[in-house]
Amino acid sequence: MKILKLHPLMTISLLQLQFQRLLRCNCAVYARYALANALDTLQDAGFEEEVLIDYPIDETLSLREFEEDLEERFHFSLELCNKDFKPFTNKSLRLFQLLSICAAYDAAQQEQCIQLLDAGLNKLLLANNRQQPPFSC
């Protein structure tokens, strides 16, 4: 099962790396109906949660259903795109069909994406752990 990790301090570029890794596609994120900057955080785009969320991806959903579900649950808008950041026009495609369409990344690019994503998530989690007060009984 593929898990999308979302945190309010995660940058748009880190979210895009996750989409490249998990679904082999890009995504465009919108903040207040305008294209978000790659350095903006999910919080800037409208993500209202305060903790790390693990969101399991149901690959049987259509692109439209997936995008709408994320918007309803997490209050930020995104659009799945091909490798050139052109939005997919056939929104009835299922997420599992993207793998064959978007297999544009070679093994070296995939490995680089995985390393960048893992490093970014580790850094984010470490920073988040330092901000929380110690647990006391």
Q: Strands, helices and their partners?
A:
Blueprint: E1 2-6, H1 12-23, E2 26-31, E3 34-35, H2 42-45, E4 53-57, H3 63-74, E5 77-81, H4 98-101, H5 107-131
Helix pairs in contact: 1-5
- Determine the mean pLDDT: 83
Shape, principal axes of CA atoms: globular
How many helical elements?
Answer: 5
Biggest pleated sheet: 3 strands, antiparallel
Radius of gyration: 15 Å
Indicate the percent of residues in helices: 40-55%
Q: If strands are numbered along the chain, what order do they take across the biggest sheet?
A: 3-2-5
Structure description:
This protein is of the alpha+beta class and 137 residues long. The chain is 42% helix and 17% strand. The chain contains 5 helices and 5 strands, in the order βαββαβαβαα. The protein has helices at residues 12-23, 42-45, 63-74, 98-101, 107-131; strands at 2-6, 26-31, 34-35, 53-57, 77-81. α1 packs across α5 (107-131). The chain is globular and about 45 Å long. The mean pLDDT is 83.
Provide key terms for this protein.
two-stranded antiparallel sheet, 5 helices, globular, alpha+beta, single chain, three-stranded antiparallel β-sheet
Quick synopsis:
By secondary structure, the protein is an alpha+beta fold.
